[in-house]
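4.2 Preliminary Data

To establish feasibility before requesting continued support, the project team ran the inverse folding procedure on a target of 678 residues. The structure was first converted into the token representation described in Section 3, and no sequence information of any kind was made available to the design step. The complete token record follows.
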């Protein structure tokens, strides 16, 4: 084809096509006006690509065009193209149509067009749209590209900007530094290599930005750049969605900046990542990050991330499974709740140095969290409540130097928490608010050494291997230890607050055997007043440790406190019991009284013998044996039955018999306790 029907530019393209030579029309043809010297009709290009030319033996035809202005519609829909389509730095005044086309290499890099239609197309090789500018959507729905799709620095405005639902890319999908003013649809798309969105800027405030629901990526998703590393991070203005997506190798959004004022900034419910999920090192989300039901085979990395959310959780990873660590340590900041309810973490949850802020609610909600490793939060700072209800931690929960602030409510709620190791709230741990560990199970230590709790501390029904305090412990409000079960109580009694709840508290061993008076002062802090169980428990602990005298002191104190609670009429009898026999816990005092009564009775009856019942049969009167017969209820010397006192002696004998029963029984009980322990 030649002659007047072709312009000079078109003729140059026609002549170059059979040999695959490039035609660069950026330099205008001599003698032609600049505006017309680079114009090429779309129908001319279509005829060439469809085979309307004279082939040259030994040459590979191809359209290699640069700097042209293509007029008309380049319509290759449904066509089977055998030749490469390379139109770089060209301007198309109409949308190129390649719907359901089958072609080889397509390279439109640097070109501008009002949209591109390639849905259901097949490209055997590379699809390159680098540095392209499109004023309307680019449509790649259900397209199949056997090579790489390169959208680096592509600029599109439309609604949506890129249709890529059900797109299949056998190698990489590169969107590095792309600018999309509208949604990028990748529903159910599949990428055999990597998906790279580093430096991309996607804006769609009223909806999704990158919509990858059901997306499958075999080589990893890369959308962030660590701080001080070359390149720019992903910027998303709207909802970044990866619901039900499956990403192999890794998913990294380190340094990415996500913002959505109308909903989640990052919505990845049921996301599956066969490796780490990195939301760290400068990652910023203005809006909730949702990982509910996600599966991460490696760690979830949040160090250095900043999450801000108003009214909804800053991070929702409920029902998620993380096979590595959940690392939200140094530099991590969250304004809003972290929700880890029913989450399963095979590694550790690391919150060391994190900053959590939610003044009107829970900063960390981890109900039924399951962690095989440890929860480590050294230096954690939280404004709001941390909830670990029914959570299971295989190793330890470590919170040294943590700062928890919520003066009007709970700082830490861990009802039903199960910890395989230690719950470490030592060495500078500070809570301004209520801590509740009701019904928690701690297999090793509950450490409160160096702890400051400016608010109630509820340890109701907890179970712990040991409970430790020291001279640096400051518990400034009510502590509830009701029905707690402690193996070793390694505390200092004077470090507990003035108000305690101790009913039902049990412990097997006292690590520090303080003076009994200090322990009794500790029991006296019981808010309900006198309760028998705390005294009996303390006495039992002393007895197990062989401290019998201390145990008796405790039981005596129990009786005295109980008597003090009695009506006035009954207190006199109690005072008499205390003064005479120490409620039975002073057997030596009873023996002394027996001896005094024996001496008094012997002297009295020695001066005034009682008359014999049968004078002819009565044995010689012995005042000592007669008094012993009266005082000792079991032993008999034959004197009491032989003599019958009269008058005042009868009353004296009755008093000696009554006193003997009381005092001898007290002495016998004391001897029995002593012999039973030997």
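Position-by-position output of the design step:
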């Amino acid at each position: 084809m030649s002659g007047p029907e072709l312009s000079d530019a078109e003729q140059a393209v026609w002549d170059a096509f059979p040999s695959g030579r490039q035609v660069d029309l950026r330099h205008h043809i001599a003698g032609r006006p600049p505006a017309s010297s680079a114009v090429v009709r779309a129908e001319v290009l279509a005829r060439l690509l469809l085979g309307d030319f004279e082939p040259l033996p030994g040459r590979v035809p191809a359209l290699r065009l640069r700097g042209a202005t293509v007029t008309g519609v380049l319509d290759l829909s449904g066509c089977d193209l055998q030749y490469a389509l390379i139109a770089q730095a060209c301007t198309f005044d109409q949308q190129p149509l390649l719907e359901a086309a089958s072609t080889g290499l397509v390279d439109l890099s640097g070109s501008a067009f009002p949209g591109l239609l390639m849905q259901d197309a097949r490209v055997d090789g590379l699809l390159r749209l680098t540095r392209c500018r499109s004023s309307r959507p680019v449509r790649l729905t259900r397209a199949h590209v056997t090579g790489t799709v390169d959208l680096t620095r592509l600029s599109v405005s439309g609604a949506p900007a890129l249709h890529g639902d059900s797109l299949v890319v056998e190698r990489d999908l590169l969107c590095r530094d792309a600018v999309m003013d509208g949604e990028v649809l990748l529903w159910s798309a599949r990428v055999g290599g990597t998906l790279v969105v580093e430096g991309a800027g996607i804006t769609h405030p009223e909806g999704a930005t990158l919509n990858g629901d059901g997306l499958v990526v075999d080589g990893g998703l890369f959308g962030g750049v660590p701080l001080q590393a070359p390149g720019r991070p992903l910027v998303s203005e709207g909802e970044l969605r990866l619901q039900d997506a499956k990403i192999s190798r890794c998913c990294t959004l380190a340094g990415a900046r996500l913002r959505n004022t109308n909903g989640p900034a990052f919505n990845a419910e049921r996301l599956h990542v066969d490796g780490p999920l990195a939301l760290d090192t400068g990652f910023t989300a203005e809006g909730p990050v949702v990982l509910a039901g996600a599966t991460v085979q490696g760690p979830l990395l949040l160090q250095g991330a900043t999450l801000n959310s108003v009214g909804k959780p800053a991070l929702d990873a409920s029902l998620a499974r993380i096979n590595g660590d959940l690392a939200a340590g140094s530099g991590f900041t969250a304004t809003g709740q972290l929700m880890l309810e029913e989450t399963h973490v095979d590694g550790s949850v690391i919150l060391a140095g994190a900053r959590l802020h939610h003044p009107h609610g829970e900063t960390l909600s981890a109900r039924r969290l399951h962690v095989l490793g440890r929860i480590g939060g050294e230096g954690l700072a939280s404004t709001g409540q941390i909830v670990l209800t029914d959570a299971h931690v295989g190793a330890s929960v470590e919170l040294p130097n943590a700062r928890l602030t919520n003066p009007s409510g709970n700082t830490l709620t861990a009802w039903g928490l199960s910890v395989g190791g230690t719950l470490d709230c030592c060495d500078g741990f500070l809570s301004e608010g209520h801590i509740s560990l009701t019904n928690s199970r701690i297999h090793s230590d509950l450490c409160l050494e160096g702890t400051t709790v400016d608010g109630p501390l509820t340890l109701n029904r907890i179970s712990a291997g040991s409970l430790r305090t020291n001279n640096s412990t400051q518990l400034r409000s009510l502590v509830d230890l009701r029905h707690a079960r402690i193996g070793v109580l390694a505390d200092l009694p004077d470090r507990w607050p003035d108000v305690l709840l101790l009913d039902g508290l049990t412990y097997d061993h006292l690590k520090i055997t303080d003076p009994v008076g200090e322990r009794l002062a500790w029991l006296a802090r019981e808010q309900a007043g006198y309760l028998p169980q705390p005294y009996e428990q303390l006495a039992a602990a002393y007895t197990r440790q062989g401290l019998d005298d201390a145990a008796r002191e405790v039981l005596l104190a129990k009786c005295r406190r109980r008597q003090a609670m009695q009506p006035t009429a009954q207190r006199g009898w109690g005072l008499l019991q205390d003064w005479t026999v120490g409620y039975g816990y002073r057997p030596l005092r009873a023996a002394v009284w027996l001896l005094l009564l024996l001496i008094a009775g012997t002297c009295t009856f020695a001066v005034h013998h009682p008359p014999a019942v049968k004078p002819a049969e009565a044995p010689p009167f012995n005042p000592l044996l007669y008094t012993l017969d009266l005082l000792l209820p079991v032993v008999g010397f034959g004197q009491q039955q032989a003599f019958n006192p009269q008058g005042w002696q009868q009353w004296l004998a009755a008093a000696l018999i009554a006193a003997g029963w009381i005092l001898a029984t007290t002495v016998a009980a004391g001897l029995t306790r002593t012999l039973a322990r030997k």
